[in-house]
């Protein structure tokens, strides 16, 4: 096997794009750029599947380039929901940073596996993306004197159309206007999962849920949280009642409450107010609970 191989260029490009995506997502100064959206879409819709295909099918004869691209898209769409489902059963939950970390680690590991498997094959059999050959072929097609003028004109028009489409896509992504402002507000069970919510109590017994608030309002917001049982307010510590968050930051804490009276199918509401509206909840979630007398 030859020592100087070029078939790892595509894997290096994938790994570089993964790292670049992490930088644009995690660095606050870059997170507002349209490149964050573009790279994020690549990481979700293409890169994991491409790396996985490279690890599973390292030989040229396995698939051609177009089949690999299409299958990479399909596998990526399959991998991401499965990873999100698995994250839900961990202490990290379905959050931006854990999902980003999981996808990045998975893709980089698959790139490493693909590189290793290609190394085990003869150089002529290992899959590669012929970057240089493609560029030289395109140059020859456009600049060299061969074929009819009509063929050359069609080739040039095709390249211009592709470049114009890419430019239009970049413009749309970069000039879609101000991003939507919103706040995430949800509750998890005591194990930080979307299950096992405490719904049955004896009178005097306390319950605990995990409350998560994430600010995507593009400004600092002062929130007020309130818990109501059948429209009766329940006491909350001041540090959990008044919460101030900067943009793109989260607050997640266990919140304990004690239902003060008995009843069946009672509505337990978790209400979140923002600084501009104190009477109408900005966000709300609820549980239906039963409280019985202690036997």
TrEMBL record:
This is DUF1616 domain-containing protein. The chain crosses the membrane at residues 12-31, 37-57, 69-87, 99-116, 153-173. Residues 14-290 form the DUF1616 domain. Signal peptide: none annotated. The keyword Membrane applies. It holds the Pfam family DUF1616. InterPro entries: DUF1616 (IPR011674), UCP018671 (IPR014495). Keywords: Membrane, Transmembrane, Transmembrane helix. Coiled coil: none annotated.
